[in-house]
Design goal:
two-stranded antiparallel ribbon; globular; alpha+beta; Alpha-Beta Plaits; 163 residues; six-stranded antiparallel beta sheet; 27% strand; single chain
């Protein structure tokens, strides 16, 4: 039976909408079938705020891959699309993060699931609420909708496309 992986996509360099579309295609080719896709949202940069706004969306992927394999493929897709990592929270052509993988809790040096910043980021929570509002965070024991209601991030998250 396939596993369910929620993945956050973000881009703030180049043709950002096209970057998200291409990333979705590469995810389907290399990781699994995308069964749900959120609208695309525009948000001011979080963390390092001195950069262009991001486009973000969240997808649900059915995959037979293990979490480390999903991560490996996501990093390969980022590299294939031209991402070069130099500093944390820098401008980027593409950023792909595993938010959830089934109901698993993984704490390893190179992989933490659920993603440790979900509850702090409106740009993650807003598209996630759109596609999985009642999804229960396995560590915090709150739904995504509850996490959004108590999120202290005040960055505006504006829907720019509807899916």
């Amino acid at each position: 039976m396939p596993n369910l992986a929620y993945i956050l996509l973000g881009s703030n360099q180049g043709n950002t909408k096209q970057n998200l579309l291409l990333a979705n295609n590469l995810i389907e080719k290399n990781i699994g079938v995308i069964t749900i896709i959120s609208s695309i949202y525009e948000t001011a940069a979080w963390g390092n705020t001195q950069q262009s706004a991001f486009l973000n969306q969240v997808i649900l992927v059915r995959t037979k891959l293990l979490p480390k394999e999903v991560l490996h493929h996501l990093l390969a897709i980022e590299t294939q699309m031209g991402r070069i990592r130099t500093t944390k929270w820098e401008p980027r052509i593409l950023d792909l993060d595993i938010l959830f993988y089934d109901n698993e809790i993984i704490e390893q040096v190179d992989l933490i699931i659920p993603h440790p910043f979900i509850q702090q980021r409106r740009f993650t929570l807003v598209p996630l609420v759109e596609i999985a509002s009642n999804l229960m965070h396995p560590v915090l024991h709150k739904t995504i909708e509850e996490l959004l209601a108590t999120c202290e991030d005040n960055l505006n998250v504006e829907k720019i496309t509807t899916n």
